[in-house]
Amino acid sequence: MKRNTLSQLIQNDILNELSSKRLKPGDKIPTELELMEKYQVSRITVSAALNELKDKNIIKRYPRRGSFINKNLALSSLPTFSEKLPPVNPRHPSETITKKYSIGVIMPSIRDLFAVNIIHGISSCFYNETNFHLNISYSGDQAFEEYVIDYMLKMNIDGILLFPVDQENYNVKILEMKVNKFPFVLIDRCLPGISSPHVISDNVYGGQLATSHLCDLGHKNILICCGSGLETFSVKERVQGYKNELARRKLPINEENIIPSILKKLNSEDERVETEAKLLDPKYTGIIVTDSPAAMSLYDFFMKRNVRIPEDKSLVSYDTPITNTIYNSNPFTYIDQNEYTIGAKAGMLMKNLLLNRDDFQIDDQIVIKPNLIINRTTAYAKQ
Q: What percentage of the chain carries pLDDT values higher than 70?
């Protein structure tokens, strides 16, 4: 990926943070070192991005203090090109410049902002480029995912960006695409035995971040509640991060404190009573939830039972939970997986794969470091 493309991606992300009001005029933005780690790029690339934003009067840079959003910035004045990433130039323009590419995007659902922001990131790579067309579909379950892949292949799609559904075994259609050397990029999944282009979050590190935050607040008995089964790739790694951090702090690891498929258990006649009792047990003061829909359900569960968050229990979610009128604004402390960046980098991999097929490293794999965003659902444990 070219430096100017990555520089523009950093600028786009900061502009999107402003547009979504996660950054406001006067706020300090991450340091150069933090941006270098987040995007896995050189200081030159980060400095170029920040200097361009400075030249556009979007940020102010101060020696030894860092960079800040211009206090006098009017959000209405943000550049209209903030959605657009620079095009990847083909190595063989005469062969590719006139070709129209049809790209399939297959997502499990759009039930949370994580999926929405990934699609937003993917779209930014192809904004206003008439030779690329995105076909977005939602799979829901493994059987329908197989049908959608098969349908797209029969429609002579040129490449597929695939966010696989949660499953113990990967879809056989993915293996078929690998064997047939069909261009595809996996999103948020690294499936065992399949070496292929993918963009994932560092889930082990995310699990460590969440656990470390609760431990730093004095929580010693921490539950980790999983939205799906433990065989799911991302859940397995987040649980491993949780265990790693407990082991690093020489705290006991109790397998009973790891609850898979939490919402199914709460809706099960056989497991509901036991699961509710564990959640309500006052000794468990810290709770990590591995996805935002499950986090919102547990937040409501505790509110209805007069359990105060964070006074009685601290709760850490994943991703940006979709808020509603009950919450008024986003209260959640959560692990931000930088899903917009995940989508953007997946789109760039696909574009490179299609335009520079002979030169592209087919097994390019990108791991994005998540961040901890501290809000109002975590606090110091009661003494």
A: 85
Judging by DSSP bridges, how do beta strands 184-187 and 159-162 pair with one another? parallel
SS3 for 366? strand
Provide the residue count of the chain.
Answer: 383
* Lowest-confidence pick of 165-174, 205-214, 255-264: 165-174
3-state secondary structure of 322: coil
Structure tokens that stand for 74 in this block: 């009017």
Closest C-alpha to 245, from 225, 222, 226, 274: 222
The predicted pLDDT at position 229 comes to: 86
- Full DSSP string of 206-223: HHHHHHHHHHHTT--SEE
Consecutive H or E run containing 293? helix 292-304
Whether 213 shows a pLDDT value over 80: the answer reads: yes
Strand ranges inside 1-125, DSSP E? 59-62, 66-69, 101-107
| pTM of the complete model | 0.73
Task: Determine whether 137 is exposed, middle or buried from the number of CB atoms within 10 Å of its CB (0-12, 13-18, 19+).
Answer: middle
d(CA 57, CA 73): 8
Ordered domains of the chain (ranges, CATH): 3-79 (1.10.10.10), 101-201+338-368 (3.40.50.2300), 203-336 (3.40.50.2300)
| Digit-coded pLDDT (tens) for 287-315 | 999 988 899 999 999 999 999 999 999 99
Q: Measured between alpha carbons, how far is 246 from 242 in angstroms, rounded to an integer?
A: 6
User: What token pair was written down for 363?
Assistant: 């097994």
Show the 3-state SS of 114-169.
HHHHHHHHHHHCCCCCCCEEEEEEECCCHHHHHHHHHHHHHCCCCEEEECCCCCCC
- In this structure, the strands spanning 66-69 and 59-62 are antiparallel
In tens, the pLDDT along 53-104 reads 988 888 999 888 899 998 888 766 565 433 344 444 554 454 445 688 999 9
Distance of CA 190 to the CA centre of its chain: 14
Token pair 């030249």: residue: 55
Mean pLDDT of the chain: 84
CA dist 362 and 170 (Å) reads 20
CA distances from 247 to 250, 256, 372 (A): 5, 16, 20
DSSP state at residue 112 = S
